[in-house]
Amino acid sequence: MSNSVALVTGANKGIGREIARGLAAAGLTVYLGARDQERGARAAAELPGEVRVLRLDVTSQAEVDGAAARIEAETGRLDVLVNNAGVALDWAHGPAGADAEALRRSFEVNVFGAVAMTRACLPLLRGAEVGRVVNVSSPLGSLGLLSTPESPIAQRHLLAYSSSKAALNAVTLLYANALRPDGVLVNAVSPGLVATDLNAGSPFPRGERTPAEGAALPIRLALLGADGPTGQFWGEDGIIPW
Known about the structure:
The chain is of the alpha/beta class.
């Protein structure tokens, strides 16, 4: 992995930072995407290996395109894209109380940001020996689990967050199918219930997993070999139903 290059979005804190840490420790050159350049620089200074800060707001097409162009100019390659940036905006509202604006803002980051990032990086990923895209999702976007009314997942009632993660799961499958001929592996992953800033406002249990524990599975998928799976949704206990 010593010549490989990775980009992790939303990586100045939490699970994203730990994913960046793990990939850098594995010998990859890691671009740490952060909306705030200063916070990104502080995070990068704490990490081992070759970590380069990249100012990156995934809702800005100019910054997305600029990120891909910079990586191409500096390294000429990209082997791994981890779409980790995400938001959760509707902890306090059930479906009846959620408004369209919360959905727009959620989809802007959780879905459109991941699509914009993947599209911009496709030429580089297609040129990799094994291109890998890891989309950080959630069981809260599983239609299989949401369709069981008594399940804890269905009882969260998070219209904006769950629908955006369900859309991200569909995006994962569509990219996986389209990119199979190019040898690019595309998978979704749940880091598990980790107490981070994302769920700081949650009225539900925030979980006892650490960001490092949550990052372990995304890192494993980011380091898959050519014979690795594609088009799957992984959780700590195995495959999660779509």
